[in-house]
Fold:
Amino acid sequence: MNNSKPGKKNNKKRGSRKSDHHIFAFIAGKISFGFGIAFFSIFGAWFAVIYGYFFIYGNVNFQPDELQAFTQHLIISVAIVSVLYFIQSGLLQSLGFPGIDKRYRLVNQLLHRDPAGNRTEKLQDQQLKSLLDALSNIPLYNALIVGICSFAVTFTVVYLNIRMTSSFRHAFIIFIGGTIAGIVNSYFGFTIAGYWVAPIRKKIQETLFHRNVTFEKKHIFSYRKTSYSIIFLVLLTMIVLAQFMSTGHKAIEEILLFIVMSIFSIGFNIIMFLNSVNLFLEELNESTRQLAEKGAGLLFPTYAYKELINTSAHYNRTALEVNTIRENLEKKIEERTLHLVQAREEAETANRAKSQFLANMSHEIRTPMNGILGMVYLLLTTNLDAQQRDYLEAVKRSGDSLMDIINGLLDLSKIEAGKLALDVALFDLPGVIKEAVETFAVSANKKGLELTGEIEPEVPVLVIGDASRLRQVLINLIGNAVKFTETGTVTTTVKLEEEHKDKNTVKLHFSVSDTGIGVPTEKQKTIFASFTQVDGSMTRKFGGTGLGLTISQEIIRLMGGLIKVESQIGKGSTFYFSLPFEKLEEAVEKENKNNLKIHDKPTPMKSGPSSKPEKPEKSHHEVTENEQVRILLAEDNAINRKLVKAMIEKKGWHVTAVENGKEVLDILQNIENAETKGFDLVLMDIQMPIMDGVETTKAIRKLKTFEHLPIIAITAHALKGDKEKFLAAGMNDYLAKPIKANTLYAVIEKYIH
Structure:
């Protein structure tokens, strides 16, 4: 905590205060601090002399020569005493005499040429404590000294007057007047000294506090006593004025002069009193502001009145308690924040490890699965008897089921990590519905189910969205419907729910209804949870991982919708959701709809061609009908290399197979140097020894001859960001393992024709 400076606002006020009193700063800086106090105290002394003088003048009828002598005696005595007072206060400090009283000597020495106390922070603790004690006592000692000086003047004038007039009555009145002057002078001396030492006392107290040095908090006076003093001064003024006017032989100018001087004197003391209150309130306001802004907010009042000292002491105890509580709270918050940061880092580390594990597992599982399913496909294209074909088809179905599970787990991990992304593009909506429905045509036919798809006429044909994720959701829902329905129908319906022509958007309502076993009411809220099924017992009839609905729900939510279910036991279920899509302009849509020749209500859905692939960028070498396609294959796994090679050769294309990217680069460099016929396309595995697919692709793109050679990634890396990373490296397309023959052929033909 740092409260060594009260704040900008307060600093400005203090700076203004110093500039307003540059006379004191000049005198105290050039001569001594004590002399600066004495210089201003003299003004108070002359006010006191005026009080005494008017009292005496009002009660004694001096003869002209007596009045002149009295006045001369008074002025000479005041002048001599003033010089002695100045010497004791430090007038001769430059000559090596800082004063008579030890307190004045200490103050004058430690504040030499530093009237604002700016160098006090460099003093040692004991020096600061001694200086603080001296400053706290100077107002009282200054009052005592000026009081003694006043009585010295009084006795001198009384003595001289007795010798001159031999009138003890006059002497007594002069003594009373001198006593009044001494009291007023002492009060002024006390007030003026307290005014000038207050700012330095405050600065020293702050310095000692921040050094953790204990010091006695002395109060010089109190507001109650100050109030009594002002009242006494007013009463005294009224008495002197009344007595002065009662003689009846005084000029009106003399009376007015006394009244003006009295008002000035009393007003000065009242202003000083009010100024101390106002300054304390400003300091209190500044301290509370600092406390609110997480500063120390401690309060050190400039004026050492008893009430202010006590109030500031109570306030500082409260401020210290608040700061302690705040520090403890901030420490706890910091500790908890640190724990949260550590927990977050651990969670991120675990998430990265999980993602890496999933990436590795995806690669390690997809690679052998590609070999298994690919070889099964090749076997199914050979001459087999019925039993062999049946066995191989069972293997293929099991492999496909296993890949569905793997893909489901990968999608779930993406969802949990918040990395599931949409691929938004223009697509043929009826085509997507048709593909999803026809996926289960065989299984529905075996169970004797009526599988239909219906699209209302108002539904646009071409929309902008993620066709792949929509197809995935529909396949999950239709697959569940077929699985849990023994007899009856499974119907997929698409309706127009909302249309905003000004924004060119629509909201479409999708539903998949069946006449199956239904979902119990108590299960309808839990079936969307991961790994949850309606029947989770060991004796359940229907298998599955319980991920389909969870993944579908998250995909729909990501696309801006919400999936719901309505179901009755024994009567069937309806899963439905609504999704927003952008659509083409009506004229363009109408033209496309006519060209596509889509039926409005296919039952079963048979029409609706799939959206055609975009025409690729011109390849490195366009193949003519009579020219054989030449493909370079890079695959480190022997089984997968053999499989892909066999698939390619089945199409009558020529393939050269190598094990790593270094061999690919060597072959292409030799072709470039020999200027012989090269390859039409490269199938590049990603994870290979010596030189991986990404590094190899970047190297190929540096070869001028092959900077446009089509390179297709074939990899088991199927997590989010993989495709983008491969395309950024310079590859043209991407195939995820396990590779299906028809998909492989379609991609190759996309780039060679």
Remarks:
- The radius of gyration is 52 Å.
- The chain has a mean pLDDT of 79.
- DSSP finds 21 helices and twelve strands in the chain.
- The longest strand covers residues 489-500.
